[in-house]
Write a structure and sequence with these properties.
Number of helices: 8
Shape: elongated
CATH architecture of the largest domain: 3-Layer(aba) Sandwich
Largest sheet: 5 strands, mixed
Bound molecules: zinc ion
Helix content: 40-55%
CATH topology of the largest domain: Dna Topoisomerase Vi A Subunit, Chain: A, domain 2
CATH class of the largest domain: Alpha Beta
Structural class: alpha/beta
Strand content: 5-15%
Strand order of the largest sheet: 4-3-5-6-7
Distance between the termini: 57 Å
Order of helices and strands: HHHEEHEHEHEHEHE
Length: 197
């Protein structure tokens, strides 16, 4: 039985995606054995991240400024708005370099099973942003899952009165695929081959 502090560390690490109890114990041990190189810098990084990083009130991205760096970037094309499920999808598209507009992070998909309706997602803010005359196209870059496609269909209807063109990603997104897992080339193709929603 380890010290209560270590047990707590292991319990918290085990809640991270991809880390079960066994790998959490190994990670905790590595941290404790490499105090100066890992444990202390990590503790500092966690504290600073918790203090400084917030959710962008405009697009839902995570950044140390609100509005975030993408929203404030003057080089972005103001006519393009790309809707994604999660920040991980925004990161994936940014890594691919396939998109030069701005984003809107929904915070998930509509899901009857999980009881997630439009109020639980950042949809009202999206409709408001799409109503800006500067915005001409909203790209619904949602996963090719049932919930993702249901959400895209719902959004296309909600956005119709705003008078914007709504498009979806086309080739390359495999059925059941989540954007975060796609390679850069597939994502780039899917973005270029987008079609009316
Ligand atoms: Zn933002």
């Amino acid at each position: 039985m380890a010290a209560a502090e270590i047990e707590r560390l292991i319990r918290l690490l085990a809640r991270l995606p991809g880390l079960g109890p066994r790998s959490a114990r190994r990670a905790a041990l590595t941290l404790l054995q490499r105090r100066e190189q890992l444990l202390e810098p990590l503790a500092q990084a966690l504290a600073e991240t918790a203090e400084k990083v917030t959710v962008c009130s405009r697009c839902g991205n995570l950044d140390s400024s609100d509005p975030c760096g993408v929203c404030l970037d003057p080089k972005r094309d103001p006519s393009l708005l790309c809707v994604v499920e999660e920040v991980a999808d925004l990161w994936a598209l940014e890594r691919s370099g396939a998109f030069i507009g701005r984003y809107h992070v929904l915070g998930g998909t509509l899901s009857a099973l999980d009881g997630r309706g439009p109020e639980q997602l950042r949809i009202a803010g999206l409709v408001e942003r799409a109503s800006d005359p500067a915005v001409t196209e909203v790209i619904l870059a949602l996963g090719a899952t049932v919930d993702g496609q249901t959400t895209a269909h719902y959004l296309a209807e909600r956005l119709a009165p705003a008078g914007v063109t709504t498009t979806r990603l086309a080739h390359g997104v495999p059925v059941g695929g989540e954007l975060d897992y796609l390679d850069d080339g597939t994502l780039t193709t899917a973005m270029k081959a987008r079609r009316p929603a």
